[in-house]
Amino acid sequence: MIIRRANERGYADHGWLRSYHTFSFANYVDPNHMGFRALRVINEDRVAGGHGFGAHPHRNMEIISYVLAGEMEHKDNLGNGEVMRPGDVQRMSAGTGVLHSEFNHSKENELHFLQIWIEPKQLGIKPSYEQKAFPAAERQGQWRLVASPAGSEGSVSINQDVNLYAGLFNPGEQATAPPSRYAWLHVVKGEMEINGETLSAGDAAAFQPDESISLTGKEAGEVLLFDLD
Predict the structure, then answer these.
(1) Which of 16-20, 76-80, 177-181 has the lowest mean pLDDT?
(2) How many CB atoms lie within 10 A of CB 11?
(3) Residue 192, Cβ neighbours under 10 Å: how many?
(4) What global pTM score does this model have?
(5) CATH code for the structural domain at 2-228
(6) Measured at the alpha carbon of residue 59, what is the angle toward residues 56 and 62, in degrees to the nearest 5?
(7) 8/10 Cα distance (integer angstroms)
(8) Binding-site residues from annotation
(9) Which residues are known binding-site members for Fe cation?
(10) Which residues of 17-56 are buried (b: 16+ CB within 10 A; e: fewer)?
(11) Per-domain boundaries in the chain
């Protein structure tokens, strides 16, 4: 287990946007942290009320948005327009090219979300979009599959051999991770004990194939787990 602490991440403060970068992104470049397997970006963004990202293009990237607090308004040139709330998972396959915007739906409250980029398995596919809600009850004390290649178990589908699990864990709740190949675990909220080490919000850990992952909640929180080829 190799730990990546929250305070080691890149940071950018644009006033209306405060963003932590787990991997190299924009002006933050660290040759030792360019990504992990197909996982290329995990940005933890806080967007002030009434602000957001205007229309901008993406190409050949699988983009997952995961809202932690507040509401995010999404629009794209495919005709999609939805508001995301905590528990929602949005997947956008940029493929040959897509134009989209992301705004804080509230004029007053802060939007807190994760933007995740995964390199695609197949290039040049037709752009597509998908959003699903995963109630807290489905994630409490267990791993819930929220993204997978075939959209298994009601998850969103993704153009890469990656399984993404989400879990909510209270103090004392224990869980063993599903069998994985390479794995990246990201603590979203709270505090967890992972294989005997304490990880807090923003901390992450990388695992080699078939390395066991045991979790115990220390402070009520939320965790994402990526199973990667």
Answers:
(1) 177-181
(2) 11
(3) 28
(4) 0.96
(5) 2.60.120.10
(6) 100
(7) 7
(8) 56, 58, 100, 102
(9) 56, 58, 100, 102
(10) bbbbbbbbbeebeeeebebbbbbbbbbbbbbbeebbeeee
(11) 2-228
